[in-house]
Design brief:
The complex is a heterodimer of chains A (about 110) and B (about 170).
Chain A lengths: L1 E5 L5 H8 L4 H7 E2 L10 H8 L4 E5 L10 H20 L2 E6 L2 E6 L8
Parallel strand pairs in A: 1-3, 1-4, 2-3
Antiparallel strand pairs in A: 4-5
Helix pairs in contact in A: 3-4
Chain B lengths: L1 E6 L5 H10 L5 E5 L6 H14 L5 E4 L14 E5 L1 H10 L6 H14 L2 E7 L10 H20 L2 E6 L2 E7 L1
Parallel strand pairs in B: 1-5, 1-6, 2-3, 2-4, 4-5
Antiparallel strand pairs in B: 6-7
């Protein structure tokens, strides 16, 4: 599994889709994105389930001020933990910033090799 | 050479950008985009001026429409910063929107030898924004990606340490 993370609007989907030369339809079949929104409950089971996909994409949301609202705070922490669990399960972890990829774990993805 | 330096608040962007620009040839131009409008921004401008002292920069203020900004062929330009420029193009009466930022950067790049742009990493705090703020974030991200794609060097500053995202 390839885990792609990075800040909001940094071009995560566009990058991995074009790196793997996928059509939009193909991409939608093998990838799941905005998984930070799913972070609640049993995070380990969720990470296991998500890791069955070829590509998992999450937006980093833990960088701002700690939210005053309890629910938002809990969700943000769950999102961060989920990202860690996904990175553990991933063969490859890539962070995209300004549309530029940086390899954090594993090898650069390449479909033909 | 086109360089993009991005980072969070007080991550050492300006300091790094200024020292990098000093290693490049050409007349150093500091292209200031922040319109000093209140006490805080005036103080910030003063702080940055002190930081630049002795580094031989000529300061040009340009708040919108970079296409008319007077730089010359051999100039070594440091633009600071992109978020202020975008905010001016989006929210000031004479502003012409996000496209004016990208067109301005292109025009500037075509005219000077070295262009170094400082921009802001404000995208890791979640998407709990709405309305104008969310629009602003989307537009700034688009400008960042556009410049990063064209740039020869892209650096993300992390607590004063440069993390090289791209080097051509």
């Amino acid at each position: 599994m390839i885990f792609v993370t990075g800040p909001l609007f940094s071009g995560k989907k566009e990058y991995i889709r074009s790196a793997l030369r996928m059509t939009e339809a193909e991409f939608e079949r093998v990838a799941v994105w905005d998984v930070q929104l799913l972070a609640e409950g049993d995070l380990k089971s969720l990470a296991d389930k998500l890791a069955e996909k070829e590509i998992v994409i999450a937006t980093e949301i833990g960088g701002g001020v700690v939210p005053i609202d309890t629910e938002e705070r809990t969700h943000r922490e769950a999102a961060g933990r989920l990202a860690c669990l996904l990175a553990e399960r991933a063969d490859t972890v890539i962070r995209v910033c300004c549309g530029l990829p940086q390899l954090l774990k594993g090898e650069w993805p390449c479909r033909s090799c | 050479m086109l360089t993009l330096i991005i980072g969070g608040a007080s991550s050492g962007k300006s300091r790094y950008a200024e020292s990098m620009v000093q290693t490049l040839p050409g007349k150093r131009i500091y292209l200031a985009t922040m319109r000093p409008s209140d006490g805080e921004s005036i103080a910030r401008v003063a702080k940055h001026r002190v930081q630049r002292e002795g580094k031989h920069f000529e300061t040009i203020e340009c708040y919108t429409n970079l296409t008319v900004c007077e730089v010359r062929q051999d100039d070594n330009v440091l633009l600071e910063d992109l978020a202020n420029l975008l905010a001016n193009e989006l929210f000031s009466p004479e502003g012409k929107g996000v496209e004016a930022v990208n067109r301005g950067i292109e025009a500037l790049q075509a005219r000077c030898t070295h262009l170094t742009i400082v921009s802001n990493e404000v995208f890791s705090g979640g998407n709990v924004y709405e309305g104008e703020t969310l629009h602003f974030l989307k537009d700034l991200a688009q400008c960042n990606r556009y410049i990063a794609q064209r740039a020869d060097l892209v650096v993300e500053m992390v607590c004063g340490i440069p993390n090289i995202l791209k080097r051509r």
